User: Which sequence fits this backbone?
């Protein structure tokens, strides 16, 4: 009998003084501007709010993103709560 292996998703957030943050387990950067960044991660959608936000490094092959700026909010939600990507962005940024 073959055993099923459970694949544990790896998502890690490292933040320094709310000025820089490194994220792993990132599947895609759906949108970004100086006030908001929306990431699709292994564990759901991650909405980052702040001021003067910049995506400094992006490596989607490794699933890594580094941002800097004034980070005010990190909020997670399930991908299924938004449906398709196009609909999700419309709901988030009304």
Assistant:
């Amino acid at each position: 009998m073959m055993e099923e292996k459970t694949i544990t998703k790896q998502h890690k957030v490292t933040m320094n003084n709310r000025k820089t943050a490194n994220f792993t387990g990132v599947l895609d950067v759906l949108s970004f501007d100086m006030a908001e960044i929306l990431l699709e991660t292994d564990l759901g959608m991650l909405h980052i709010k702040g001021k003067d936000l910049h995506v400094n490094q992006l490596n989607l092959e490794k699933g890594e993103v580094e941002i800097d700026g004034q980070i005010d909010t990190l909020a997670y939600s399930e991908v299924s709560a938004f449906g398709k990507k196009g609909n999700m962005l419309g709901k988030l940024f009304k």
